[in-house]
Known about the structure:
Largest sheet of chain A: 9 strands, parallel
Strand order of the largest sheet of chain C: 3-4-14-9-10-13
CATH topology of the largest domain in chain C: Rossmann fold
Largest sheet of chain C: 6 strands, mixed
CATH architecture of chain A: Alpha-Beta Barrel
CATH superfamily of chain A: Aldolase class I
Order of helices and strands of chain A: HEHEHHEHHEHEEHEHEHEHH
Number of helices of chain A: 12
Distance between the termini of chain C: 73 Å
Oligomer: heterotetramer
Shape of chain A: globular
CATH class of the largest domain in chain C: Alpha Beta
Radius of gyration of chain C: 20 Å
Strand content of chain A: 5-15%
CATH architecture of the largest domain in chain C: 3-Layer(aba) Sandwich
CATH class of chain A: Alpha Beta
Helix content of chain A: 40-55%
Number of strands of chain C: 15
Bound molecules: pyridoxal-5'-phosphate
Largest interface: C-D, 75 and 75 residues
Amino acid sequence: MTDMRAAEPVKAPGAQLAGAGISGRRILAAKAEGRAALVGYLPVGYPDVDTSLDAMRALCRPGDGPGVDMVEIGLPYSDPILDGPVIQRAGTTALKRGVRTRDVLRAVEAVAEAGATPLCMTYWNLVDRYGVDAFARDFAQAGGAGLITPDLTPDEAEEWMVASEEHGLDRIFLVSPSSTEERIIATARACRGWVYATAVMGVTGARQRTSSQAPQLVARLRELAPDTLVGVGLGVSNGAQAAEVGSFADAVIVGSALIKPMLAAEDAGTPADLSGLRAVVADLAAGVRSA
Amino acid sequence: MTDMRAAEPVKAPGAQLAGAGISGRRILAAKAEGRAALVGYLPVGYPDVDTSLDAMRALCRPGDGPGVDMVEIGLPYSDPILDGPVIQRAGTTALKRGVRTRDVLRAVEAVAEAGATPLCMTYWNLVDRYGVDAFARDFAQAGGAGLITPDLTPDEAEEWMVASEEHGLDRIFLVSPSSTEERIIATARACRGWVYATAVMGVTGARQRTSSQAPQLVARLRELAPDTLVGVGLGVSNGAQAAEVGSFADAVIVGSALIKPMLAAEDAGTPADLSGLRAVVADLAAGVRSA
Amino acid sequence: MNEPTTLPDKGGHYGIFGGQYVPEALNAALTQLDREFDLAMADPAFVAELNRLRVEYSGRPTPITELPRLSALAGNARIVVKREDLNHTGSHKINNVLGQALLSKRMGKSRVIAETGAGQHGVATATAAALLGLECRVYMGKVDTDRQALNVARMQLLGAEVIAVESGSATLKDSMNEAMRDWVASVDDTHYLIGTVAGPHPFPRMVKEFQRVISTEARAQLLERYGELPYAVAACVGGGSNAMGMFADFIDDPEVKLYGFEAEGDGIPTGRHAASITGGSIGVLHGMRTYVLQDEDGQTVESHSISAGLDYPGVGPEHAWLAASGRGTYEPVTDAEAMEAFKLITQTEGIMPAIESAHGIAGAIRLGRRLAEEQPDLSPLICVCLSGRGDKDVASALKWFDLDGTPDETVGGF
Amino acid sequence: MNEPTTLPDKGGHYGIFGGQYVPEALNAALTQLDREFDLAMADPAFVAELNRLRVEYSGRPTPITELPRLSALAGNARIVVKREDLNHTGSHKINNVLGQALLSKRMGKSRVIAETGAGQHGVATATAAALLGLECRVYMGKVDTDRQALNVARMQLLGAEVIAVESGSATLKDSMNEAMRDWVASVDDTHYLIGTVAGPHPFPRMVKEFQRVISTEARAQLLERYGELPYAVAACVGGGSNAMGMFADFIDDPEVKLYGFEAEGDGIPTGRHAASITGGSIGVLHGMRTYVLQDEDGQTVESHSISAGLDYPGVGPEHAWLAASGRGTYEPVTDAEAMEAFKLITQTEGIMPAIESAHGIAGAIRLGRRLAEEQPDLSPLICVCLSGRGDKDVASALKWFDLDGTPDETVGGF
Lengths: 291, 291, 414, 414
Ligand SMILES: Cc1ncc(COP(=O)(O)O)c(C=O)c1O
Ligand SMILES: Cc1ncc(COP(=O)(O)O)c(C=O)c1O
């Protein structure tokens, strides 16, 4: 395991830790357009695997206008301790309907084909169980860019550091308002791609207002790890909030707000109806471009 | 209180303890006829006070033939620890229907009028509450002969010794198969009238067979307290048993067997029908005369 | 005041109270019991075995616990509780039961019978019977077997036979009657294991001695921790065994006040209560002369209390004597006061008492408040016997506080 | 075998097990906890206060009780139980809860949250919170709040807020998830009071230390009474806290065998069990790497056990390490075996154990019988942790034994 207590992060074997990686370059491309990148989270398998792939495609191309830059493909997990009720419901339903870990690979392909950068957000046991190296290999092969690991910090990431290097995958770890300076520095160095700043102390879920802690946390990151790209997530629910977050973050991450219209569609008996989703994406995409 | 631990009973003030008393003389009268006396127990107030008095009259004169020599008028009590289910049911019912302690006085008069000797069998608290002296006075005045006290032994009978002497009442205490020699002697001396020998270890109730302990207990009494008259109770249910008990005891006491036909009458919807009671009494009266 | 320590006399009398009002058929057994009890208590082997079970089986000594957060609500009083709730089976009842069950064995009796109200004493008796390999039968009023089915099953799991008693009011007093009836017929091989300091001599004396350990321990613990004797010791009084155990070693300390708290149910004026001393009159019940709830004629009147263990229309004769002589002070505590105290001690100290014990707590709080007015300079140390734990009473408390076990909130539902 | 006493490393690892698989948002709190725990344990005032509460409040030391009548059914074994059932609130859970609640106060956190299955740990936490004046919220699976409404009410009576968790399988593991979610958002003023030696570092280490008192006492008591160390110590294993407490001071006695008994439910072949070590595989759950019941993909599989307290699909990481290293032996015990043992100890010794603890008893009986065959000359002393009392389980036992609380007989009915 990596020792996070020292301010100096331990170097993973043969790694260039602070690299922008695949997903970082995507963010830089957005930056080049003068805007933040938009990252959309959707769980694979909800409402079913095929429709979830459609939904991810819709995320990338909601209509005529632009969609997200990156898709954070969620792997449903039985014990998602960082997920709020909306994502939990979608994930639990997907599991009940039989989604498997390997379905993420199809999602990666779909997203890649649709022109966005495929990331996977997964609780660690699913990767552990698959085999860290095997998962990294298959994921990379399918065209995936990297993993967001909500319950894996660099402290426990030795195997993942090795495998991600081996297979050229990005490592997006989380930082939080309660992270110490030392940990912010070390986490930023352990990341490749960008750093996921959890904007509020709390689980996922669309909120009325974005957190006042987010700008501070990003500021701390910029000070402590100047060259790091920062995505801000947890709580963004509409275009205006996306614009606001985009004004200080390099990437805006949206999850629950995207799933809500899908749950609503299911409740209305039309689970394949992605129009609500498209509308939210369009709003968000406009948002990051409005600043 | 009287000390029963010593073999020599303490003398109650001014008492001639071993006297035959009123009820003893009645037994001696039966003995003069060459038979045991018959003692019948009925609770006052069952099925109601008036009918219970009729029942007692029927006990004394069941029809053309003879009835009991003495009536043991039961005073229903809320906590009758020596009563079996039959007497409990009658007593509980009587209490529910409002029988009062003072009703025993009417019963005494009825029995006396009918020519039998009226005794009262009562748990001590009822007498205690009435006032021991007051109860003795009123009871004697009504024509009562004495009290049978199932939960009062001579140990606790100081007040009762005084009051019974004062009002000329008999004291019938119980002895049991487990009584020691000392206690048999002392109890016999404390009694006036006769001694109540509880034939089995157990509560009241008609039994298929009379106890084999009864003859033994009577034999012990006769040996230890030669001049004492002995009534045997608990378990006698028919004429044959009465004859058997009458062959060794001076008085045969019957309770549950008399109440059973009354309960049956109530269950049949004819609570005032005393024919069943009369039949049992006739059988028992014949029994004590058949030896 | 008479010399308390010379009581009872050899006939079991405490002044005019106590004695032996029982069928002659039981005299031999009671005499044997009286004798064997004295022999046993004089036999170091018996005492050692009893002590071993107390320590190794029941978990004695039980601690005393000071209750600072509760005391803050009781004037200047410092309330300390003697933790009988920590005993095996959850109350002081086990102290008596272990003693009598050992004594049964010593007397060569292979069977014990017991009466029980809510089931505490029945469970304790079934427990001791299982431990010592005795046959066990428990009499319980039909009303109580119906409302305490779990306790019926608990006794059955312990291997005891449970008999529902339908006679009379089908409650505790009737189960005592029925146990007496059994005993009259079975006295040769059976011991009647009475659960409190009531009944005919020698039960009140014997049960007191088996419960004395409460005050022997508490007295030493209080002296050690506080360097002083308490202002008062207090306990709830049903039959009176936990109170007698709490009082025993303090009776001869005249400066220590003895407070017994009876169950006042809905209030004495309503007639629906179980306060035999405060609201009853002298009579004979269950073999003893004592204060009894009775009507004009001496028929026992049904008692009423939210607490099954206090729901008894009589009281141990020594309490009657202590009350009559003025050595002890007995006050009634209503259902409402007891339940308020139940909540207070639960929420301020994390100790959920038996509702019985909550009567003692309520009384102590009231006493503390009263003293704060009457003698504001005093900061009295009051030691209350916490006779049992409240697990058995959760359903009653729920009902009282109008709870139904519904969670406060639900999350994660979709 | 590695040096057991040097574990865990400072990242909380026991060999490959343990660690800290949690959202970064919790890192600061866990780091603080790790540090404050060490400071507290090095602070004589903290240790003294904890010890005072253990003695004066919870009733420690708990005794050890030899069970001769039960042992007669277990080959040549002498079975001795460590009586954690005699603790305040009825199980070993209070040992941990008092420690963590005091630590919360020390850390200036005014609120505690906890997960609970059947409610034991929730009640214990609510108890300590009431005692120390902390705000308390307990998460409990909806399935469990429904079937344990009494325990919900009990926590509410203690002043705690109870939140039903409907997510996932709506049982214990989901209540842990929900507590984690709460903690992520409330970590500034809130301590998450985990109830067993599971979860992310430092919980397994800390809870072990708070439970160590079990074996510290037992070791001294056994040596004093028997003059020898036991052949084995044994305990049931859910999360593993009572077992770890029972093992702790014996781990460095290589001659003392350590036996952990897991819940086998309907039997491992049926898939309906909770035996994570015997029937699970290595994975990550609730912040730790350990043995987990999981499917091919790593999704947690629901566990099954008649015992709510063992009904958990993971196990503390140190147990995983003890099992993997061979220092400890872990065997499964089915529902049926546990219930048979429940009945045996109840009826032969008058001790009604928690069904959890009955698994430990069943395992000890089996071990005793096996040793009698394998090593007939041995008369092994086996000390089992009787982790809790069975009062909470009477309803389950009833159902199992097909009892319904009907008395055996009725008398006095007319
Ligand atoms: C916990 C508890 N306290 C008190 C009592 C009342 O009995 P006593 O007055 O004999 O202590 C009982 C009786 O069941 C009880 O269970
Ligand atoms: C009495 C008892 N024993 C054992 C357990 C299992 O927990 P652990 O394995 O942490 O001791 C519980 C959990 O609720 C319990 O209540």
